[in-house]
Structures are given as C-alpha cells and as structure tokens.
Amino acid sequence: MAQPLVPEPALIADKPTNSKELICEALRNYEIPFVAAGRDKKRVEEAMRFVPGIETADYEVVGVAHDAGALAELFTGTQVVCNTVGPFHHFGETVVEAAAKAGVHYLDTTGEILFMDRAREKFSAAYAAKGKVLAPSTAYMYTPLEIAAHIVLETPGIDTLEAICSATGTPTYGSTQSIFTMFEAAETAFYLDNRKRVIWPKARGYEVNVPGLPITQLALPWGGGTLPLYFERDARVRSCRQLTTFTNRALFEQLIGMQQMYEKDIKPLAAQERAVRIKAIGESIQPGMPPRENPLVHRCVEHVEGRGGNRSASCTIRSFMPYLLTGVVQAATANFLIGGRQLAAGFVSACQAVGHLEILGQLQNFGLVEVTKA
C-alpha cells in the first residue's frame, strides 16, 4: 500500500480546488508513493491528469465512500493522511475519526477554529495514545506564520505575539466556503489576552502595517487564526493575536459587508436554507478553480512582532505562490513523519510535530521563502 493518502475534496465539496493536485505534485517531488482517494474514482483520475510530472509518480487512485468505517479501512496500511476536504466544519471530522481508527498521522489544510477545537477535544488523546500526529492547518496562512512566531519566541522573555498574514490572490471555491463557515462560528473566533480567550468583534476590519507595503492594509480575524489555539497551552505565551489581509482591499471590504449581511439576513434562517444561501454567495465570489499561480504576482508576507517586559523581537517571512507552498508544507511534513522525525503526538501543529526550522528549511529548498529577523 502506498504511504500517504490524499482524500479528494472535489467529490465531497462538489467544486474543484487546486490544493489536492499541488499536494500530489509535491509528494511526487519527494518521491513518496501515495493514494489519491475520492467518492468518484473517474473524477479523481481526471483531476490527476493535470498534475505536472504525474507520469513519473508512484500512485494509485481509489474510490471510497465518505464514511468513517470505509475510510478507516482504506487508511489502514498507510502512514499519513493529507486531507483537503472542506468545509471541514461539515466534512472534516469523519476523516479525523477514520484516521484515528486506522492509527495513522493526520494533516489537513484548514484554518476553521471551531472544527480544530472540537477535533482536539474529541480525538487528541486517541492520536497521542497511538503516538500519532493530529495536525490541522498544515498550509499557507498558518504554517509560515507559525514559523515566524517560533523564531520570535527564540528570544527569551517574549510572551506576547502580534501576527499578520498578508496574501495576494483570490480564494478558491473551497476556501470561500470555509470563510462562510467561519461566519457561522464567529462566536468562537478568539485571541489570547493574558492566557484567557477573548472573542473578536463580529464583522469588523482592522488597519495594519505590513512590512514592504507603504499603504495600510485592511485585515480580518479570519475566524481567529490558528496561532492562539496552538499557543494556548504554551507556557511561554500569555497573549496572541492573529490577523489576515489580502492586498485586494475591495475583496476584504466585500467580506466585511457579507459578514454583516450574514448576521442580519442569513443567520436567522433554518440550517438547510442557510447552506443554500452560503453556497450561492461562495459561487458569486469564486465559481471555479483559479488558474495556476504566477510567482511574479502572488507574493505574500508573514510578519510577527513579539514583546516581553523590556524585550522585543520580530520576524518577517516573504513568500510567494501560497497554494504551491501548501503542497510543499504537506509533503515535507509527511516526509518527516514517514522518516521518523517526530517531536510530539496528539493535537499539534506541523511545526510542533516535526520542528519549525525543519519545515522552514524545506520551503527554502524550493525557493519559496526568505526570512528577516530583528
């Protein structure tokens, strides 16, 4: 049986994304055998035709029901599951449960805090008992920013983190659906203030300064961000806030308006009608898969400021092509886990699981990031 297994998201979310193909491409680069799985085998096979260099990869395609029992049977004998099925609030837990039953490592690409919080409480102990990793948000928007945070925390005395992820690009259909899932879970979007959870105000934007951009950017809590969750039980960190911005300011202004509209017009509706309305809005923003990223256009910045009593530190990571970067982060983390490079088990981030400098080194190997420390 091939080693990592990549569930096919399009067959559950009903629209294509490009994360799955890029993960498969990266697995091929690492020469890791893999299984591409989805509900419709023919559609998976069609998607795989567009993966660059796939003819040199060692892989197989499998059709499987989105059912914990069927998935657990398929996962048995593999080592890592790379899950891209979203919105994770609706579809992710089935895959987490299946991977726990099969006793394999689990990675995914989400930043949906409600799903992650629930997965930690329900499944972390089961993964830890088997010595396996449960690592959501192994992806752009989360992993490079966490790398910057860990670099800042290398300075003794730092206990407060202010983090900004600034991207250039357009969310895929799947990402857009996840954004609206975050609207549904706005009551759980939190930051840390003196080790206590504080809920972000709803439908509010924040002006932020991003290194290298002379004009302030409009940022959103983006569901709260993953750093407060991953650092919540880190004794070094008292306070942590994370914001996300796209250089497309008009898009973020639109998202704020949509969240206001959601709270007023959609939230009171019955669950089924809410789902229909959210699906239609997602299609109006991104009806299909965007074209492959352009390295001359899709440039991003991850910046973390750290503060202690009388000390400060900062780290800026400049990156590009975030979906390609996601594929590399997933494959690199899987490669470390398969090779036995594992620092922790249970619910942890990829950085906590295999080491932030190790993941950084892999991103540098592909020329995707540059780091500046101060």
Word description of this protein:
By secondary structure, this protein is α/β, with parallel strands linked by helices. The protein folds into two domains: 4-139 and 323-354, NAD(P)-binding Rossmann-like Domain (Rossmann fold); 143-321, Dihydrodipicolinate Reductase, domain 2, CATH 3.30.360.10. 41% of the residues lie in helices and 22% in strands. It is built from 14 helices and 16 strands. The strands form three sheets. It has a seven-stranded parallel sheet, with helices on both faces. Strands 10-11-12-7-13-14-16 form a seven-stranded mixed sheet, with helices on one face. The chain has a two-stranded antiparallel sheet with strand order 8-9. β8 and β9 (196-199) form a beta hairpin. The longest helix has 18 residues, at 249-266. It is globular. The N and C termini lie far apart (47 Å).
